[in-house]
Design goal:
six-stranded antiparallel sheet; about 35% strand; 3 domains; Jelly Rolls; binds 2-acetamido-2-deoxy-beta-D-glucopyranose; mainly beta; about 500 residues
Length: about 500
């Protein structure tokens, strides 16, 4: 009869053996973890509160020359903190509207509000998304010249035409010799926003004479009949919009306010957003206009690590704040089937070395060192996942998973590779020797070692065109699962 010690040792062996039934035999992960559960949703209150703190409403200044180039888009708040920063290279606002593109407008303009009679003091618009101004000849009240100007300013949706009197620079310094100002905006404003009555001292003080103050007459507003359809930023696709609903979706990373509705600037913020430790990089953004008490107030850029769509665009506003012009954009991966969802040889449990989209290669003499599984418990999302390390625990050699086709990358462009790696199947300490190397054209650009639940890892790479991505790793029973792999382009 075996000694109790031997029995105990045998039992321990059985238990530990039972704990590592290999993936090929449908073993269950020792430490399952649902990392997409409890993903945060937008903090409406913080957005509403911050919208009450920013003031993005301006008029054409009294003291700067006409025809200044449109400044880059400004970020006026980030995650509830008011800021004043520009997004380098991200703004569409510095480019002229390109003819024949989406930005081309077919239609004309409609008068939103009429000027007051010339004998009365009037007011100019103080509104969001001010872009620049010009002066047009004041021989007549030349509306057409002002509309023509709008056509030349990228992003112009609206112009405010008015006379400004007692502006010394207009009267004596600027070469145009006109006081008929035409201010261009990237959003439409109505007469309730005519709040700038002038009252500024522009003329120099001479002796003890009273300096005449600026005043405004004949202020009219003209809006483009069709809003410009924003150009979809490089590396993204339009998912929905425009609608009156902002997303209320999981995977929310935070928000920024922009001083105008600049989709490309929002894309740049998403690309530049630091990765969430659980959810990874920004993969989706929702841009919308906040209208407070009927007045355009700010432009929200909300970022997500889980792509959303119109089905969750159900936040129509809170209190006085109304959501308008909401659009969702999803980041495009140049890697097809990064989630191994294309492997559908069964509907419950199966695995393979290779299929149409991925190729698994074992070490010489190894067996099933790189495989793809259909089995939801192994997947981070969906039913597919990749496995490195001998699936049946036949050896401890590494394997390599690589997409079946080289990537459709653009030479010279930067990309961020992201993969979710789960090294938890066998638990600790067996997983302590787990490792995954990310290789770009055979060169190691990133790695993960040791026990972890599905966690995102990133590597920034430069493409040479037709690049080869691969993942090498596995030291069974220190298995490594891969899922939700993406290769996202960065803006030029
Ligand atoms: C993981 O969490 C998500 C979101 O809560 C849920 O929809 C999904 O059913 C969960 N999956 C599992 C396997 O528990
Ligand atoms: C933001 O900063 C720029 C440059 O420093 C300054 O000209 C501008 O007035 C600032 N805007 C606000 C709203 O503070
Ligand atoms: C036209 O503008 C010039 C320069 O500001 C000004 O001196 C002149 O009085 C203006 N004429 C009219 C008709 O407003
Ligand atoms: C302005 O100055 C002049 C002479 O310098 C003086 O005669 C006049 O009284 C002053 N007017 C006022 C209102 O102070
Ligand atoms: C201006 O816009 C506000 C908000 O949309 C609206 O309440 C108001 O009626 C508008 N005014 C005019 C003159 O259209
Ligand atoms: C935000 O607003 C949406 C839509 O009104 C609502 O469903 C959601 O619960 C709100 N979220 C929070 C955190 O208050
Ligand atoms: C993978 O295994 C092969 C063959 O055993 C070995 O030559 C190679 O060094 C291993 N690679 C890594 C990254 O460990």
């Amino acid at each position: 009869m075996p000694s109790p010690t031997r029995l105990f040792a045998l039992a321990a062996l059985l238990v530990s053996a039972a704990a590592v039934v290999p993936p090929a035999q449908q073993g269950l992960p020792g430490a399952p973890d649902n990392t997409t559960a409890n993903a945060p949703t937008p903090d409406n209150e913080s957005i509403v509160q911050t919208a009450g703190q920013v003031n993005q409403k301006t008029s054409a200044p009294v003291d700067t020359p006409p025809d200044a180039s449109v400044p880059p888009t400004t970020v006026t708040a980030v995650d509830g903190t008011v800021t004043n920063t520009t997004i380098a290279g991200a703004s569409a606002g510095t480019r002229r509207r390109s003819a024949g593109r989406l930005g081309k407008r077919q239609s004309g303009y409609t008068e939103i509000f009429k000027p007051l009679p010339a004998s009365e003091h009037d007011a100019s618009i103080e509104g969001t998304a001010y872009l620049t101004y010009t002066v047009v000849s004041n021989a007549t009240y030349d509306v057409q010249a002002c509309l023509d100007f709008c056509d030349t300013v990228d992003g112009c949706e609206f112009v405010n035409l008015y006379y400004e009197f007692n502006n010394y620079l207009l009267d004596f310094v600027f070469s145009q010799e006109s006081n008929l100002k035409c201010a261009a905006y990237g959003d439409i404003h109505n007469a309730t926003e005519k709040t700038n009555f002038g009252g500024q001292a522009s003329y120099p003080q001479v002796g003890n004479e009273t300096v005449p103050l600026t005043y405004i007459t004949q202020s009219s507003g003209w809006a483009a009949d069709s809003l410009i359809e924003p150009t979809t930023p490089d590396g993204y696709e339009l998912v929905f919009g425009p609608t009156g609903g902002a997303n209320n979706a999981p995977g929310y990373m935070g928000f920024a306010f922009l001083d105008r509705y600049d989709v490309t600037a929002c894309a740049a913020l998403c690309n530049g957003r630091g990765a969430d430790p659980v959810g990874g990089v920004c993969q989706y953004f929702n841009i919308w206009r906040a209208v407070v008490d009927g007045i355009p107030t700010t432009y929200t850029c909300s970022m997500y690590y889980i792509p959303a769509d119109a089905s969750t665009a159900v936040n129509f506003g809170q209190g006085d704040l109304v959501v308008t012009l909401s659009r969702g954009y999803s980041r495009l991966s140049v890697l097809p089937d990064g989630g191994f969802e294309g492997y559908t040889a069964c509907d419950d449990f199966c695995f393979t070395d290779s299929y149409a989209n991925w190729i698994g290669t074992s070490s010489s003499g190894g067996q099933d060192d790189a495989t793809v599984f259909f089995f939801p418990p192994y997947a981070r999302t969906g039913h597919g996942s990749g496995l490195l390390g001998s699936a049946d625990d036949a050896d401890s050699f590494n394997g390599t998973l690589t997409p079946a086709q080289p990537l459709t990358t653009e030479k010279g462009k930067s990309y961020v590779v992201q993969a979710f790696v789960g090294n938890d199947f066998s638990g600790q300490p067996l997983e302590n020797t787990a490792f995954v190397f990310i290789l770009w054209n055979g060169v190691k650009v990133g790695e993960v070692t040791g026990f972890q639940h599905y966690t995102p890892v990133q590597a920034t790479v430069t493409a040479t065109g037709k690049d080869v991505l691969s993942f090498t790793g596995g030291d069974a029973p220190a298995w490594s699962f891969l899922d939700d792999i993406s290769v996202f382009g960065l803006l030029e």
